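Subgroup meeting minutes
Present: P.N., E.W., G.H.
Scribe: E.W.

1. P.N. recapped why we're keeping a running log of single-chain structure predictions: easier to compare across weeks, and new members can see raw inputs and outputs side by side.
2. G.H. added today's entry (226 aa).
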Amino acid sequence: MLKICRFWPLLPLLMFTNNWAFAADNFKRFEFQPFAGYSVAGDIPLEDDEGVRHGSVDVKSSYNIGATFAVNLNEFDSIELRWQRQFGEGRLPEEFAQPLSSGNPLVFNLNIDQYHCNFLHQYEIAGTRAMPYVMASVGVTTFRASRSGEGDSSSYFSFAIGGGVKYYFTEHFGIRGEARWNPTVMSASDSRFWCRVGGAGAACVVNLKLSLQDQLDMTGGLIFRF
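Output recorded in log:
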């Protein structure tokens, strides 16, 4: 046990100094990665076309799960499909509450599904098994909200930029960590979707202008190559 404890602090050093010819001889066309992580979510501003602020939808930060499936175009470039689900909670501003409503109509369950196409460019570090990368993606984010057994969903355009690092233990198996900025473009429409979910009634409907819901995703998972 003592030997293991002594070895553990050396693991990061070995990851970047272990001489291993990874590139051409070990090229694999496909990669599959299940992952989990945490999403730091930003609020959704409720501001109308005249610039009047009507509070914001508070989106709670929460954990996420998902998976990617990648096609490697060559040793350094790949395209992948990415699905992520975030399990969270939303809350409407106080001014949207109905005076005589029962319970708390402002709070509701909020799951966020994201479907993206990722573009990755990797960098080789000579003599190591680690490959850092940068990424950019575009796709659709779907907000699935529910309260008291009733639910609704609405989808919006989203994109992301970020980076991470892959580390391959063998030619078929590795790990991956990633951080990315992931904004969703909330369309210029009224707030009817949030009102229906929160049960706050038609009085809360506001004609909104175009806005962004910012989010920071931090994920990690396994890599299976074939």
